[in-house]
């Protein structure tokens, strides 16, 4: 070996030493010894897959994506992130259309490995980890022949859904999802893991039921279980847009807590003319034929209908799989809540949606989605009994849109103003379908001061600072 070569080797060794030293000087994520998976932009396809979200609008490039295998790993990640001043984002199902469950350059705590579901021996409750999807829960519940109050679709995450209040197909019968939580476990901003229930940390229990992601990471929910309401009569009935006022009259007729209805404004090929589709969901014990008669007989004439029976909620939770696979990928979603199916509100939005989807073929795929659940059960719980304050009779209206934030924004403000004018009550916006530019008082209403005071105790330094941020301040 010539001296040149030797020198080269030395320099090379030195360089290695320097680089190892500098790695040691920097606290490393890998060195934390967390059980689970850690991905970085260097991890290739695994990393790319882990950045995916239901809406491509919500895809960002985090520095780390961590999948803890145990809840005990989470405090270590929080401590590391805080020591490096990295933003922390928490992801469960990743369906929220705003990018709150991801971060540009920060750390994503992906709860995907924490998805265990266990039914209690007496089958009266189900323990669900905070990273489960509703599909995980429904599969296990089906085996035990029980149901819980969860999301309509299997791929919605339990975590984000629950902290947003939770409208379920079963809400007409059993109330909101948060009204059926018996207790929960939360990782706090300071790393402590606490149990919360009506008697343990009761303020925290109140706050996580509709207060969003602002109070900690819920790693476990214990949910009340019920005997199944199925089999379900479900399917779709399609009408030409020319029938809109007749369809509205049919929708406005009475229904029970066992009948849920979704209404969609959509354009379908080949002509792409405006159409209305209704998706009924009728529990066992209701005369389905009688319930559906108002949509198919008399004045109103469907273009087509497909009605059948689904044995259980696992089956109905797969009803949108085709739309998910083949529908638009860039989703801008906003929604608001409204008190009733007022003509002015419904037809005003029809008008706006028709005009918007005329604009270009690009936005033609935008749909307007209405959810009609009998509100009586939901309103039995007081507006300040949980952080989810919207309790006066209302329905919820997830507006789905392909491209134009301005349109969704315009429609939800129109809906809010019209509803306030007619019902005399301003319901504001709903966190689960909001984008982040709404004001906290528009989301939390009169419950905001209490949430701000609880924030002083559980997150005084504002570690949870994504989404609808609540300031820690005493009342
Ligand atoms: C196709 C579709 C269908 C929907 N259907 C319904 C419905 O039937 N009923 C209904 O009520 N809503 C529905 N929603 C709204 C949905 O509940 C919210 O978007 C919810 O935030 C999604 O939860 P996620 O865990 O999948 O989302 P993510 O994007 O993973 O998270 C959303 C927010 O919740 C936070 N979060 C997630 N997990 C936790 C946790 N364990 N602890 C604390 N914070 C957490 C995240 O940090 C983020 O801020 C639907 C949305 C879509 C797109
Ligand atoms: C990433 O996702 C794609 C599409 O779902 C899949 O085909 C591929 O196997 C995934 N890659 C890894 C490494 O899991
Ligand atoms: C709906 O039910 C209420 C109360 O039961 C009743 O007063 C009202 O007339 C009903 N309306 C229709 C359209 O059937
Ligand atoms: C929709 O377009 C029609 C025709 O151009 C117009 O008369 C109407 O005012 C528009 N409606 C709204 C809500 O913009």
TrEMBL record:
Molecular-function GO terms, alphabetical: FAD binding; oxidoreductase activity
Residue ranges of coiled coil: none
N-terminal signal peptide: 1-22
Domain FAD-binding PCMH-type: residue ranges: 57-228
Gene3D superfamilies, alphabetized: 3.30.465.10, 3.40.462.20, Uridine Diphospho-n-acetylenolpyruvylglucosamine Reductase, domain 2
Record bears the keyword Secreted: no
Keyword Metal-binding: no
Record key words, sorted: FAD, Flavoprotein, Oxidoreductase, Signal
Cofactor(s) required for function per UniProt: FAD
Family: Belongs to the oxygen-dependent FAD-linked oxidoreductase family.
Protein name: FAD-binding PCMH-type domain-containing protein
Species this chain originates from: Sphaerobolus stellatus (strain SS14)
């Amino acid at each position: 070996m010539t001296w040149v070569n030797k020198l080269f080797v030395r320099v090379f060794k030195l360089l290695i030493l320097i680089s190892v030293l500098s790695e040691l000087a920097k606290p490393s994520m890998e060195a934390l010894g967390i059980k689970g998976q850690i991905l970085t932009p260097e991890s290739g396809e695994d990393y790319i897959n882990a950045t995916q979200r239901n809406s491509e609008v919500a895809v960002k490039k985090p520095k780390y994506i961590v999948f803890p295998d145990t809840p005990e790993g989470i405090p270590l990640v929080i401590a590391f992130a805080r020591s490096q001043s990295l933003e922390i984002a928490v992801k469960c199902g990743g369906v929220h259309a705003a990018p709150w469950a991801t971060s540009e350059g920060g750390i994503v705590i992906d709860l995907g490995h924490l998805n265990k579901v266990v039914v209690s021996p007496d089958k009266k409750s189900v323990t669900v980890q905070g990273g489960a999807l509703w599909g995980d829960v429904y599969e296990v519940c089906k085996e035990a022949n029980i149901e819980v109050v969860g999301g309509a679709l299997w791929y919605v995450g339990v975590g984000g859904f629950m902290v947003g209040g939770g409208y379920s197909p079963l809400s007409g019968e059993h109330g909101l999802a948060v009204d059926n939580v018996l207790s929960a476990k939360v990782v706090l901003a300071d790393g402590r893991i606490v149990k919360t229930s009506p008697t343990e940390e009761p303020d925290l229990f109140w706050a996580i039921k509709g207060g969003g992601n602002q109070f900690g990471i819920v790693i476990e929910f214990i949910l009340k279980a019920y005997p199944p309401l199925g089999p379900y009569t479900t399917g779709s009935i399609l009408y030409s847009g020319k029938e809109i006022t007749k369809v509205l009259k049919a929708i406005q007729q009475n229904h029970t807590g066992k009948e849920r209805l979704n209404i969609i404004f959509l354009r379908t090929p080949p002509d792409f003319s405006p159409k209305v589709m209704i998706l009924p969901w009728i529990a066992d014990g209701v005369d389905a034929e009688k319930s559906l008669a108002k949509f198919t007989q008399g004045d109103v004439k469907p273009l087509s209908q497909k009605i059948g029976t689904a044995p259980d909620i696992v089956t109905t939770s797969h009803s949108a799989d085709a739309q998910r696979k083949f529908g638009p990928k860039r989703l801008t979603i906003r929604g608001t809540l409204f008190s009733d199916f007022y003509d002015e509100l419904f037809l005003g939005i029809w008008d706006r949606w028709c005009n918007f989807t005329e604009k270009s073929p690009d936005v033609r795929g935008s749909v307007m989605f209405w959810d009609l659940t009998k509100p009586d059960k939901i309103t039995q719980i007081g507006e300040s009994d949980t952080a989810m304050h919207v309790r006066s009779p209302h329905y919820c209206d997830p507006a789905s849109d392909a491209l134009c934030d301005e349109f969704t924004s315009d429609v939800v403000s129109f809906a809010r103003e019209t509803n306030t004018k007619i019902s005399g009550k301003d319901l504001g916006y709903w966190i689960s379908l909001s984008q982040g530019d709404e004001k906290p008082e528009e989301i939390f209403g009169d419950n905001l001061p209490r949430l701000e005071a609880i924030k002083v105790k559980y997150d005084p330094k504002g570690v949870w600072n994504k989404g609808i941020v609540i300031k820690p301040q005493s009342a």
